[in-house]
Amino acid sequence: MVNMDKTDGIVLDDLDWRILAELQDDAALTNHALAARVFCSPPTCLRRVRRLTALGVIQSVVALLDPAQVGQPLTTIVEVTLDVQTMEQLDAFERRAVAEPAVVQCYRVSGGPDFVVIVIAADMSAYHALVARLFNAAANVRNVRSFFSVHRAKFETRVVPPERLPGSGGTRA
Prior knowledge:
This protein is of the alpha+beta class. It has helices at 14-25, 31-38, 42-54, 87-99, 124-136, and strands at 5-7, 10-12, 74-82, 103-108, 115-121, 141-148.
C-alpha cells in the first residue's frame, strides 16, 4: 500500500517524497543520478520533478551559503510591532521589509509582535544602518526588539512528510 499525502489539493505519493528528500539533500544531482537513487526510470523522474516544480512544491533550486564565510556573520532575529495594524499598514511594512537585501526572512505573526524578521549583516554598524532605513524611518513602527545570535544550533530547510513528524501517528508503507 502506498501512502498518499494530500496538501492543498496536491497529492504526493511515496515516489514524490523520495525525490523531494534526495533533492533537499543535493539539488545538483543529475536526473539520471536522482532516478537511480529513488529507483525509477530517468523519464519518470524528470516528469515527476517537472510536475512538482509546476505545482509549486519545488519553489526554487538554490545554493545555501554560510553567512559568516561571505562576510555577513551577524544574524539578528527582530520582533517588530506596528503602531497601527490595518491590513494596509501591515502590507506596507511587509513590502518595505522584503525589499531590504539584509532581510533574509520575514514572517507576519500573531500572538505577540506583528512581524519576526531575520536579518544578516556584516557588523553592528551595518545592522544600525538597516535599523535607520527600515525601522526608524517608518513612522508606523512602535516597537523593535532585536536578538543577536551567538550560536546557530540548527539551520534546516528540509520539509518532511507529515506522517514522519513525531506524534503524527502515521506510518509509511
